[in-house]
Amino acid sequence: MNDNQVKRIITVNLKLTLVKGMGDFNAIPVCVEVVKEQGFSSAARALGVSKSAVSKRIGLLEQHLGVKLFHRTTRKLSLTEAGEHYYEHALVANNAAQDASDAVAQLQGEPQGRLRINTPMSFGRLHVAPLIPEFLKRYPKISIEMVMDDKVVDLVRGGFDLAIRSGDLPDSSLIARKIAPLTSVLCASPDYIKDYGLPKHPNDLLSHNCLSFSYSRDVKEWVFVSDHETISVEVNGQYQVNNSEALREAILQNVGIGRLPTFVAGSDIKEGRLIQLMSDYRMPQKALYAVFLESQYMPAKVRAFLDFL
Q1: Which of 125, 139, 89, 141 is nearest to 306 (CA)?
Q2: Which residues of 293-306 are buried (b: 16+ CB within 10 A; e: fewer)?
Q3: Looking only at Cα atoms, what is the longest distance across the chain?
Q4: Tens of pLDDT, residues 107-163
């Protein structure tokens, strides 16, 4: 059976399921959740049901479709070729059902439902998490699941309502709303400067241990702008890490010079634990955005959180 034949069978069976109103329609959100959570147990927890209920629902769905949707091993769960095709259509159906719910929810006035948010680790912990209790008190019918991760995730596959992202956003179908400017500064500890000297020009960094945030798009090439020139420096150092707070800790411990967002380094600079370097040269300013899926009906819960944030 070739790829087109498999896809045709999955499409026809899914359409029959939708048209006939069969019980397998209820398996669509279960299947989507299993793929999103990468497992039956985690999907069951997210859905608030037992693992056996999820397993049974998927088993009945596979029996009805006449194909296996998942490869199951003791360590890993992955989609079969047929499963990939089914998931592609199931995701569309699940999103359409969610749009229908959102359209009705708009008429109910008060925002409600589960809100799934993805944020960068440091910004989420320092600036989003402290806001959540007040938001939940204001909107008691909303529940929040917040996932903090510095990797860029797929909102659709991850099942997120919105995400906080920084920097230059790639072209996509996502809608972006700017929520704050994002400024980065170069800094080092007083003891590091005492031992290794104070860099006064970007080229001086070539002789320093420059520590990097590994998820930056410009990990090794740092750009500096002054009133007279723009300079790019290819830096080197003995430490890269994918978390800004871990990078901050290394800088505080005199390991080297690093580039940090002011929302991480601001209080340390104010208290003298870190020194801002080369203030005559600024680093290109970026922005923090809330990004979310384009939809005919923006869910009231998403709109409430965006306005609150």
Answers
A1: 139
A2: beeeebbbbbebbe
A3: 76
A4: 556 788 889 999 988 889 989 999 999 999 999 999 999 999 888 777 877 778 899
CA dist., res. 265 & res. 182, Å (int): 12
Whole-angstrom Cα distance, residue 56 to residue 108? 34
Rounded to whole angstroms, the Cα distance separating 29 from 73 reads 22
Beta bridge partners of 180: 288
Asked if 44 contacts 50 with a C-beta cutoff of 8 angstroms, the reply is yes
Condensed to tens digits (0 to 9), the pLDDT of residues 242-282 reads 889 999 999 999 999 999 999 899 999 999 999 999 988 98
- pTM (2 d.p.): 0.62
Q: Are 77 and 123 in contact (CB under 8 A)?
A: no
State the DSSP code for 124. Answer: I
- CA 300 and chain centroid, separation: 21
